[in-house]
Amino acid sequence: MQTEKNTNNTNEYKPYFDLLDTMQGGMNMYGAPAMLRELFPKLAKREAMDITTAWMKSKVGSDE
User: Fold this and answer.
1) For 54, what's the count of Cα atoms within 13 Å in the CB-facing half-sphere?
2) What is the DSSP string of 3-50?
3) Domain segments of the chain as ranges
4) How many CB atoms lie within 10 A of CB 29?
5) pLDDT-based confidence at 8, cuts 50/70/90?
6) Which residues does 49 contact at the CB level (< 8 Å), separation at least 6?
7) Mean of pLDDT over the chain
8) DSSP assigned state of 60
9) Is the CB of residue 36 less than 8 Å from the CB of residue 43?
C-alpha cells in the first residue's frame, strides 16, 4: 500500500516535482519548501515540506 500512496503523491505533486527538478543545482534544496510557499502562497508549510520530502525520496536511487 505504501507504494500506491507514493505513486499517488508523485502524480498529484508532478507540477511541483517539475519545478523542483528545475531548481535543483541552482539552490540549496533544503530551502525548497520556503521557495514553494513563496511561489504557491496557498500551500501550507506542512504541505510544502511533504512535497519536498516526497521529491527528495523520489530521487534516491535514480540516475538524475
Assistant:
1) 22
2) HHHHHHHHHHHHHHHHHHHHHBTTB-GGGHHHHHHHH-TTS-HHHHHH
3) 2-59
4) 16
5) low
6) 33
7) 85
8) T
9) yes
CA–CA dist 42, 61 (Å, integer): 31
User: Residue 6: its pLDDT value, please?
Assistant: 54
Of the candidates 44, 49, 18, 15, the residue with the CA atom closest to the CA atom of residue 32 = 49
Give the pLDDT of residue 13: 94
Calpha distance 45→61 (Å, rounded): 27
Q: pLDDT (tens digit, 9 = 90+) per residue, 20-41?
A: 999 888 888 889 999 999 999 9
Cell of 18: 517539475
Longest dimension (CA), the chain: 35
What three-state secondary structure class fits 1? coil
